[in-house]
Write a structure and sequence with these properties.
Layout lengths: L1 E2 L2 E2 L2 E2 L7 E2 L5 H5 L4 E3 L5 E3 L3 E3 L5 E3 H32 L9 E3 L5 E4 L3 E8 L2 E8 L3 H5 L18
Antiparallel strand pairs: 1-4, 2-3, 5-6, 7-8, 9-11, 10-11, 11-12
Length: 159
């Protein structure tokens, strides 16, 4: 648009001043396709976008998933870790460590069955019966020097 200069509300036809108002092109000026010009000539983000700390505009349809998806992943992983922690905590009540069992030397056998021996032991000051599973023949052929003196056999490796 071209504006003409008026004096006392009358057009001055021979005025040396002519002003052309060119609409601001924020995309060209800043290289951000989400910027538009406002009424004062400043550049603002479009309605469907927000300005980030660095000054760039980001669409809400991109921003929300980029925040929500990692938070959901963290929540799922955190929930899994919490459940696993609680499960291990509850299982620890029932798990007996080998070093907490005290056997007589030689161990007293109080029972014998098809799958193992029942030995007398003391656990935290209480007399208990401990079942020692007899290993299969394949396991008997594959023994190591460290396993020969173990009264309970291999059993559960997770002490």
């Amino acid at each position: 648009s071209i504006f003409e200069v008026l004096a006392d509300f009358e057009q001055i036809s021979q005025s040396p001043f002519r002003i052309a108002i060119i609409e601001r092109d924020c995309v060209r000026d800043f290289g951000d396709a989400l910027l538009v010009a406002d009424d004062q000539g400043g550049c603002i983000c479009k309605d469907s976008s927000v300005k980030l700390v660095g000054g760039n505009c980001v669409q809400l349809s991109v921003l929300f998933p980029s925040i929500i998806v990692p938070l959901l992943i963290l929540a799922v992983v955190g929930g899994f870790m919490y459940i696993e922690f609680k499960r291990k905590k509850h299982d620890s009540i029932w798990r007996v460590k080998r070093n907490e069992l005290e056997f007589d030397t030689p161990a007293v056998v109080i029972g014998r069955g098809t799958f193992g021996l029942v030995l007398l032991a003391v656990y935290r000051g209480t007399t208990v019966a401990v079942k020692r599973v007899i290993p299969t023949r394949k396991e008997n052929n594959i023994t190591t020097a460290g396993d020969e003196g173990d009264i309970l056999g291999k059993g559960d490796a997770r002490e």
